[in-house]
Design brief:
The structure holds two protein chains of two kinds. Chain A is an alpha+beta fold. Chain A is built from two helices and five strands, in the order E-E-E-H-E-E-H. The chains are: A alpha+beta, B alpha+beta.
Chain lengths: 84, 242
């Protein structure tokens, strides 16, 4: 299975690197995972007393370092989708 | 007299805290069955619903007892290092594993057939008593894990768990995958990136290429906010310092 790296671009421009990556069968799985993970990160943030960090986004790269998906957290805040 | 003094001395050939605390007589019961083994990452030590064949006394590394919901995510319910052993259910008289147990930080240990351990425990009340004390501490650890999983925030859980790892690895630095951290925290892996960054941003840890460096243990203790230390105090009360 191909491996994808779920880096996080914060709203102030910082890139939080995912050093390990994870295996996903295809791009649909990558997108579902991004949706579920963003929902979870937003929820954890709220539970920790933070505002909803919708300015963050996933920048997901494949093993050849090609950007395959940009996923704004705002999408997870507004749309239904994969559960965390 | 001389023999008595000798048998009271801590056994220096073992790093494992339980083996170290056994009397010479109890070691004589176990030692013929102990086999030193390397325990690479992910070595399965027990498999849920299968008979427990071997019990492991760890000398280094960390094993994790992991519970899973069908089609759900895995969650760690027990952490075992050189302070303890796998096979708590064998000590209690059971035979089937309730959960999977596998190595999450590479290490080594002593393997003993579960049947040999049971036989040794029925022969020696002192051996049985010591192992039961350890099982008691593991039970307390697991109950606190249940508490924090239900009530504590991600950064608090991560801080607690890093302290628990540091106690067992006895080093400021250890190799650990985000995947393992996600199992231990009960969150998806990308959430780990955020939690690590948060502790890193406060200068408490440094994460680099699969390695965590603990920079400020007291700071982690503060973040853990009371979730760390109760099980550790009980361990110390019952068995001595981890």
């Amino acid at each position: 299975m191909p491996r994808f790296f779920f880096h996080i671009r914060t709203r102030d421009g910082q890139l939080l690197k995912d050093p390990e990556g994870q295996e996903c069968a295809n791009l649909q799985v990558v997108e579902d995972d991004a949706m579920a993970s963003a929902k979870e990160i937003l929820a954890e943030g709220l539970l920790a007393g933070k505002p909803l960090l919708t300015g963050n986004s996933f920048e997901i790269f494949d093993e050849r370092d090609v950007l395959v998906l940009e996923f704004p957290f705002s999408r997870a805040a507004e749309k239904p989708g994969a559960r965390p | 007299m001389k023999g008595g003094v000798m048998s009271n001395q801590p056994n220096i050939t073992y790093r494992n805290a339980l083996l170290k605390r056994l009397s010479r007589a109890d070691l004589d019961l176990l030692e013929p069955h102990l086999k030193r083994v390397d325990l690479p990452l992910r070595t399965p030590l027990e498999t849920a619903k299968f008979p427990i064949e071997y019990v492991y006394f760890l000398e280094s590394g960390i094993a994790s007892v992991v519970a899973k919901i069908p089609k759900g995510r895995d969650t760690e319910v027990g952490l075992i290092g050189l302070e303890g052993m796998t096979g708590a259910l064998v000590v209690l008289g059971g035979d089937l594993a309730a959960h999977d147990t596998y190595m999450q930080i590479v290490g080594e240990g002593f393997q003993v057939p579960a049947s040999a351990l049971s036989a040794a425990m029925s022969e020696s009340a002192t051996l049985k008593a010591l192992l039961l004390l350890y099982v008691q501490t593991l039970f307390i650890q697991t109950s606190y894990t249940a508490l924090v999983n239900a009530r504590s925030k991600l950064d608090e859980r991560l801080a607690r768990w890093l302290l628990m790892c540091q106690d067992r690895v006895r080093d400021d630095r250890f190799a650990i995958t985000h995947e393992f951290i996600s199992v231990m925290l009960g969150v998806r892996r990308p959430g780990v990136t955020v939690a690590i960054q948060e502790l890193e941003g406060k200068g408490l840890i440094r994460a680099n290429r699969g390695e965590i460096l603990i920079r400020d243990r007291d700071g982690l203790f503060q973040i853990a906010d009371g979730t760390y230390s109760e099980p550790e105090h009980e361990y110390e009360r019952l068995l001595g310092k981890i």
